[in-house]
């Protein structure tokens, strides 16, 4: 493949989104639309990527990131797609080829772009076109009836009725030969119904200059659909998610319903993974073999090893989970947590920034924060590590084979030594001796002849 320059047109304001957020910053699968386009462009290892921005410019730059491979060029007034590409001219190499992408067409695949680029060379031009059942609104591809070669693109609003019947449309994505660009773009006129400098007018110029026009098509039509309003955005979101689900199913993942599933980042699955409905995967999530994720779970930057099960309504962030663990239902596992193998975390348990070694159980209604927990520990219901004094955080160490009775508070910093048993209802403020029962509890008393207060009966 020839090395390309990329120009991304992203200056339009996207009025129909009815939002103060610039159109290209609206998220699809948790990532700005424009970032999808840039990441796809990067997969082609371009010499440079020139982004034409306008509306909400600074915010767009900040959000998408000022990576060194991006050149930002402002188009102060949106005078048309041809005018937009012209702004990029100073950044383009004198020879070579330039791929034009739209910042609001997020789902185009890098393979589709690769085949298009493969059709281009330094002195021809390649257009990505598709045949649509309903071509309304798009520029039409005009071909010579004899040779079938492309002659021109006519915008819908400038098209003759006979041209409007053409189903082959311009996706807007094209590869242009740099050496002709300046002369073509300089000759564009805005004498058309929209008063814009149309990039599409360079096609007829190219034909005049004897430049060959090649075409190719995407594997799926939805790759070239643009986002103009919230309805199209939600349609594309579902299309994308079902595409992700389909790929995972091809790899053997079982979904209760692939239409109720969202990945906002990357999900990598081992063999025989099962995912129930309404789960959201954010950032980088890796699931090992035989992992089951039950309904309504949210996992963000999580790695789960073979055989572990996450029960319904659990939320897990920045966490590593070993093999054969049980988590949830209703577990909240916060950043910095590592569960080793065969750890059980039950309902209404919150764990933060803690390491829990193999075979330990925190099964009910507990808060474990900033804790180093050994193996085979049993934490009774309602146990709290009191890790915060209002200013500083402190660590709790719970060594191997400890048993903590229900409703205990461990006031950090504190160490519960190997084999300790803590009596239920204790408040532990000092390190406990190994192997002993420690408890801090008021002695139980009973008061004879005590009477409950009673209301006057008369
Ligand atoms: C364009 C094509 C049309 C094609 C359609 C595909 C032209 C003249 N027409 O029409 O043939 O079928 O896309 O969707 O090219 N933009 C700028 N600066 C501008 C104008 C536009 O950056 O001055 C950007 C927009 O933000 C958008 C893209 O270019 O990302 C396309 O512009 P838009 O106005 O949507 O073009 P269409 O009229 O849809
Ligand atoms: Ca458009």
UniProtKB/TrEMBL annotation:
Report the EC number(s), separated by commas if there are several.
2.7.7.23, 2.3.1.157
Q: Which reaction does it catalyse?
A: N-acetyl-alpha-D-glucosamine 1-phosphate + UTP + H(+) = UDP-N-acetyl-alpha-D-glucosamine + diphosphate; alpha-D-glucosamine 1-phosphate + acetyl-CoA = N-acetyl-alpha-D-glucosamine 1-phosphate + CoA + H(+)
What are the binding positions for acetyl-CoA in this chain?
381, 387-388, 406, 424, 441
Principal localisation: cytoplasm
Active-site residues, as the UniProt record annotates them: 364
Write out the entry's keywords from A to Z.
Acyltransferase, Cell shape, Cell wall biogenesis/degradation, Cytoplasm, Magnesium, Metal-binding, Multifunctional enzyme, Nucleotidyltransferase, Peptidoglycan synthesis, Repeat, Transferase
Q: Which cofactor does it need?
A: Mg(2+)
Cite the binding residues for Mg(2+).
Answer: 104, 228
UniProt remark on cofactor binding: Binds 1 Mg(2+) ion per subunit.
Provide the binding site for UDP-N-acetyl-alpha-D-glucosamine.
9-12, 23, 75, 80-81, 139, 155, 170, 228, 334, 352, 367, 378
Where the record annotates domain Mannose-1-phosphate guanyltransferase C-terminal, the positions are 264-357
Q: Where is this region: Pyrophosphorylase?
A: 1-230
Q: Per the database record, which ranges form the MobA-like NTP transferase domain? A: 6-126
Q: Supply the Pfam families for this chain.
A: GMPPB_C (PF25087), Hexapep (PF00132), NTP_transf_3 (PF12804)
Give the metabolic or biological pathway. Answer: Nucleotide-sugar biosynthesis; UDP-N-acetyl-alpha-D-glucosamine biosynthesis; UDP-N-acetyl-alpha-D-glucosamine from N-acetyl-alpha-D-glucosamine 1-phosphate: step 1/1; Nucleotide-sugar biosynthesis; UDP-N-acetyl-alpha-D-glucosamine biosynthesis; N-acetyl-alpha-D-glucosamine 1-phosphate from alpha-D-glucosamine 6-phosphate (route II): step 2/2; Bacterial outer membrane biogenesis; LPS lipid A biosynthesis
Please indicate if the UniProt record lists Transferase as a keyword.
yes
Q: Where is this region: Linker?
A: 231-251
For this record, the Gene Ontology CC terms, alphabetical, are: cytoplasm; membrane
> What CDD domains is this protein classified in?
GT2_GlmU_N_bac (cd02540), LbH_GlmU_C (cd03353)
Cite the residue spans of the region called N-acetyltransferase. Answer: 252-458
Q: What class of enzyme is it?
A: transferase
**Keyword Cell wall biogenesis/degradation carried by entry:** yes
Record's function text: Catalyzes the last two sequential reactions in the de novo biosynthetic pathway for UDP-N-acetylglucosamine (UDP-GlcNAc). The C-terminal domain catalyzes the transfer of acetyl group from acetyl coenzyme A to glucosamine-1-phosphate (GlcN-1-P) to produce N-acetylglucosamine-1-phosphate (GlcNAc-1-P), which is converted into UDP-GlcNAc by the transfer of uridine 5-monophosphate (from uridine 5-triphosphate), a reaction catalyzed by the N-terminal domain.
Name the protein family. In the C-terminal section; belongs to the transferase hexapeptide repeat family.
Q: What is this protein called?
A: Bifunctional protein GlmU
Q: Which gene encodes it?
A: glmU
